[in-house]
Amino acid sequence: MIAQRVGLSAFRRGAAIRPNVSFTQNVPRLAVASSLSTSAPSRGEPSPIHSNAAVATEKLTPDQEETILAAQRKLRPISPHLQIYRPEQTWFGASIWTRITGSALAGALYGYSIVYLASPLLGWHIESSALVEAFAGLGAFSKGAIKSVIAWPFVYHLFNGIRHLTYDMTWGFSKPVISKVATAITASSTVIALALGFLW
After folding, report:
1. Which of 100, 101, 147, 151 has the fewest CB atoms within 10 Å, i.e. the most exposed one?
2. Are 189 and 100 contacting, i.e. CB atoms less than 8 angstroms apart?
3. How many alpha carbons fall within 13 Å on the CB side of residue 22?
């Protein structure tokens, strides 16, 4: 109740004094007066919400505001530093590789599309027939390696997407399962990408 009482009356007074200044400058810094009571009103007393009692405010300089803000930040709970986590679990785990592969696939699509649209203006030949002709001139190992590198993000993103769907069903959150599934996804994605590259 006090917060409502102090906040609304201070906001109204600040807006009435300087209506053309930005919002943060309209709201004065408040100091709760000692005369305000936190107890419930007795019979016959008006409710604190509807009271028009004066509110004590304090004008602060920007330096004082920064000092108060810095003191308040010291009282906030602190999250543990990243150094307490094992890097393979949080930095480059299966979850972040899903985002990396998705971004790589989207970036490659957009990049190729832009270059393809600009190629007639620049005199480049990257139409499908030119790419097929250039790819046909490569050796068998080079073809397989290029196709495997292109296939791996697709396969990995697909399998990891399925893993995230199992998370949505609240399955597989224990640490041993997370580790085993991440290893299985990486291994199976690599094997299937190599198979797609060299056998198809």
Report:
1. 100
2. no
3. 2
User: pTM of the predicted model, to two decimals?
Assistant: 0.56
Non-local (6+) Cβ contacts of 5 within 8 A are 36, 48, 49, 51, 53, 55
Give the pLDDT confidence score for residue 93 in this predicted structure: 81
C-alpha span between 51 and 72 (Å, rounded): 30
Give kind and range of the element (H or E) at residue 85: none
Domain with 46 in it: 2-74
Q: Is there a single domain that holds both residue 31 and residue 109? A: no
Pairing of strands 57-58, 29-30: antiparallel
Q: Where are the alpha helices (DSSP H) in the chain?
A: 2-17, 23-26, 62-74, 87-90, 94-122, 128-136, 140-168, 175-199
Contact criterion met (CB below 8 Å) for 6 and 32:
yes
Domain-ending residue, one of 74, 97, 113 = 74
Amino acid symbol at 59: K
pLDDT at 22 over 50: no
Phi, psi of 152 (to 5 degrees): -60, -45
First-to-final CA distance of the chain: 72
The whole-number average pLDDT for the span 53-62 is 85
199 CA to centre of own chain: 39
Q: What is the DSSP letter of 172?
A: -
